[in-house]
Amino acid sequence: MYSITARFNQIVFFTSWTLVVLSLLNQGTAYFFKTGKPTVDLKILSADKFHHYKATYYNGGVTDWDQVTFKFSLEADFEPVYNWNLKQLFLYVNVHHEHQENGFQSNCVIYDKIISRPDDPSLWSDSSKLVLKNQRAEYPLKDIHKQLRNATVNFEVWIEVMPYVGYIRREKLGDFQYKMPQQYN
Amino acid sequence: MAEGQSDTFWKSLYIYFNEMDFESQLFVKKIYKIIILTVAIISFIIAFFLERFSICVYSTIGASVLCILVLAPAWPIWKKNQPNWQPANWQKQQ
């Protein structure tokens, strides 16, 4: 306390320590609020541009694969996950596909979205409901083994919960089955 | 500091804000902890019931900035109890 820099130093680091303790209390008391499982409903509307694609490399090699772009509609309610420690939710739709002949398993993310939580609690009920109508998937599903025709694929809706203080965890919200068309269209 | 020399303006300003009484140093050491802890605990309880953690963080940082502005520099209020310095005797140094 004998010089101006010593006083400044002590005040700044004492404040930092109190903020660390308050953050830990923030994370610890977040579990006292209501928690539950969010509800989600996914409907696959169409499988577009289901073709057999071919591409040539610059050095002469040729590769070919199956590719499909989906259109879906999604309804979700995230109210049970909202608490004061939550910063944002990362929602993504994953397609799980198991090949019948070889037993290969593949995962592919076809759509993702970031949902931020507003700071004002009176806006929570507006921003926690998500309705997507006739949404085109951002990324196509590709299969290099060309076994997508007549296959059963599994649509999984996942959510990644990102708090202000604490661990990041992932939750699977739902599983939806879909049968691919017999032929290319 | 030899006889006949004097500090520049910035150095004498730094010396002015640097020197604080011993009594007020003890007082400042006690009071900044009390202010920041009180503000932190009360704003945490308020923020818990309003469900907004940003209230707690902003008010704690604001209280610490207030403490820095008022308590860190040696304002005239912290120079009330000067110790009895002896008068400088330049002739002994030569």
Note the topology:
The complex is a heterodimer of chains A (185) and B (94).
Chain A (H helix, E strand, L loop, with lengths): L3 H26 L9 E18 L5 E16 L8 E13 L6 E12 L7 H4 L1 E8 L4 E3 L8 E12 L5 E11 L6
Chain B lengths: L8 H10 L3 H29 L2 H19 L18 H4 L1
Question: What does it look like?
Answer:
The complex is a heterodimer of chains A (185) and B (94). Chain A is α+β, with helices and mostly antiparallel strands and 185 residues long. In chain A, 16% of the residues lie in helices and 50% in strands. Chain A contains two helices and eight strands; from the N terminus they run H-E-E-E-E-H-E-E-E-E. In chain A, the strands form two sheets. In chain A, strands 1, 2, 5 and 6 form a four-stranded antiparallel sheet that branches. A four-stranded antiparallel sheet of chain A has the order 4-3-7-8, with no helix packed on it. The termini of chain A are far apart. In chain A, 18% of the residues are buried. Chain B has 94 residues and is an all-alpha fold. Chain B is 66% helix and 0% strand. Chain B contains four helices and no strands. The two termini of chain B are 12 Å apart. In chain B, 19% of the residues are buried. Chains A and B meet through helix 1 of A and helix 1, helix 2 and helix 3 of B.
Largest sheet of chain A: 4 strands, antiparallel
Query: Helical amount among residues of chain B, as a percent range?
Result: 55-70%
Number of strands of chain A: 8
Strand content of chain B: under 5%
Mean pLDDT across every amino acid position of chain A: 87
Give the overall silhouette of chain B: elongated
Rg from alpha-carbon coordinates of chain B: 21 Å
The poorly predicted ranges of chain A are: none
Instruction: State the helicity of chain A in percent bands.
Output: 10-25%
**Quaternary organisation:** heterodimer
Order of helices and strands of chain A: HEEEEHEEEE
Low-confidence stretches of chain B are: none
The major β-sheet of chain B equals:
none
State mean pLDDT of chain B (0 to 100 scale).
Answer: 89
Content-based structural category of chain A = alpha+beta
Which sequence of SSEs, written as H and E, runs from N to C of chain B?
HHHH
